[in-house]
Write a structure and sequence with these properties.
This protein has 2 helices and 19 strands. Helix content is 10%, strand content 43%. Strand 7 and strand 8 form a beta hairpin. Helix 1 runs antiparallel to helix 2. It has 2 domains: 114 residues, Sandwich (Immunoglobulin-like), CATH 2.60.40; 99 residues, Immunoglobulin-like (Sandwich), CATH 2.60.40. By secondary structure, it is mainly β.
Length: 277
Amino acid sequence: MRWGQGRIAGCRERGIQSGQPGGFAALLFAAALGLGMLACDGHEEAAHEMGFEIDAGLRLPAAYSGLEDGGATLTLTTSMQMGGMSHDLGAAFEPLLEGYEYRVWGGSGEKWTDLGVFVPGTDFSAAVDGVEEVLVTVEAAGAATSPSELVVVSGKAGETLAFGGLSVSSFTPAALTAHVTGDSVELQYTGLPELPAGFFYELWAVPSDDAGGAEGDAKSLAAVEGAGDGELLAEAVEWPAEYFLAVTIESEHGSEGRSGLTVYVAEHEDSGGGHQH
């Protein structure tokens, strides 16, 4: 059950029964009903608009491959040195549900060879023979005999493996706006890039503290169906007192909860800036 869906049912169970009292009893009934609705509604937002920007910390999944020993050994890592600083993209790979794993495949022509399990954030190496292409896929643990359609990163052996051919700049042209009214929010979007098979966008409300950092559990509002242009409506939202909205990239087999792959953020008008996602 997505967050927020249970509130309406709970209010209905405590709501109006058949038949309505009259006179003074009606006044008491109306007052009681009003209190009940307030208890059900919780915190509602005044109508306002929130514009999204690309998250400053956006890092897409990527792996850096190398060929050593004259091409007989393939290496993979999610960390690299740039400008004297170490960058690790392991966190961009979402933790998977139990029973699933990341696997590395080496390709030569139309033949793919299973090279083993890949654990993001650790170094990987495998003996190879004439590997030209490399894939990292999501597979059912111990069951794969060929690469699935859930390709996370891919590329030529010895080069950087990229996420669906996308880069951070791929997300720049998109425009997203949230229209918040009471306990609902409508998200309108244009130009969302198409994601690789098995991945989708999701809208979240993330509680925040006065210092601007994420606090508490993020609340899933709705999955974004498809890419390109569109809109969605999330209703029965119980808004945190202070929050920001986030659009993330999620995997079909990713763990429950918000992934570490936040693409767009929109600050609440009463929240401070400088959030780190």
